[in-house]
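Page 37, continued from 36.
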């Protein structure tokens, strides 16, 4: 594993050249769907759709139905403006040297890199909380041993505005489909616990690694309880528990997702060593179980 590019600060000239190269779309989107810079576009889109819905009936009918649709239009525009309004964040130029380090790290190891990716193909629960999901600082490896590590931004509704949520995840493709299950150390107190565990019930209490403050609890759909030990190992769980808390784990078909709140330390070689070991354990454990 070549960690050199992560630790080497690029020159200003290299960062500017990378910025020009990225304008071609080679490294994915240049804007996050959850970024404030995208909100005027989204507000205009919502407004245009609402106006389009009302324009034809107004011109053709012109009666009480028009008044009802006018109210609908106003509500739609109001929701669009309020829901998509966002606070300012840091400007992009300061990120170009960091993105270049990640791109060089990915290239040195035969992987791919996206600055932003707003179209994610995953069915995991974390990818369906809120709106405007965008993966940022995304590193991925294609092929049968596919994995994808990234920060995840999305917005959730608040009374008068929205909240920008920042999590990170590692998506791991398994060699064969596995029963659905969800593992957590915080079944009732974790962020979004009600949404993440909706429709699931505990089926087995797992042994905790020595560093864990609480054991992992496994959840599955009622009537489809599966033994988590056929997918995860004690070493994997230990790797997913740190001083600042444990990762959530979801297994869904051919995918395993590990995720937690906050940004991932993408420039820390020790984090990559841990997560790549988790990927290896997940894929070899599942291959052994399938055979």
């Amino acid at each position: 594993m070549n960690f050199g590019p992560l630790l080497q600060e690029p020159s200003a000239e290299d960062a500017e050249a990378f910025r020009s190269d990225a304008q071609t779309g080679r490294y994915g989107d240049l804007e996050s769907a959850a970024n404030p810079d995208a909100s005027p576009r989204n507000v205009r889109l919502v407004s245009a759709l609402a106006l389009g819905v009302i324009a034809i009936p107004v011109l053709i009918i012109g009666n009480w139905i028009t008044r009802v649709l006018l109210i609908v239009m106003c509500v739609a525009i109001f929701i669009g403006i309020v829901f998509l309004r966002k606070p300012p964040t840091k400007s992009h130029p300061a990120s170009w040297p960091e993105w270049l380090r990640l791109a060089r790290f990915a290239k040195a190891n035969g992987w791919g890199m996206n600055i932003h990716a707003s179209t994610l193909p995953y069915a995991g629960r974390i990818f369906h909380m809120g709106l405007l999901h965008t993966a940022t600082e995304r590193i991925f490896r294609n092929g049968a041993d596919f994995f994808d590590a990234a920060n995840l931004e999305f917005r959730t509704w608040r009374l008068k505005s929205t909240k920008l949520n920042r999590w990170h995840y590692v998506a791991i493709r398994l060699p064969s489909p596995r029963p659905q299950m969800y593992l957590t150390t915080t079944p009732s107190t974790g962020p979004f616990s009600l949404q993440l565990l909706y429709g699931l019930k505990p089926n087995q209490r797992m042994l905790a690694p020595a560093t864990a403050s609480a054991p992992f609890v496994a959840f599955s759909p009622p009537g489809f309880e599966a033994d988590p030990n056929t997918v995860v190992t004690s070493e994997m769980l230990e790797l997913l528990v740190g001083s600042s808390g444990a990762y959530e784990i979801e297994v869904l078909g051919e995918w395993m997702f590990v995720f937690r709140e906050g940004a991932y330390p993408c420039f820390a070689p020790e984090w990559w060593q841990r997560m790549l070991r988790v990927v290896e354990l997940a894929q070899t454990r599942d291959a052994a179980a399938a055979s």
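The chain has a mean pLDDT of 80. Flag for discussion at group meeting. Residues 93-290 form one domain.
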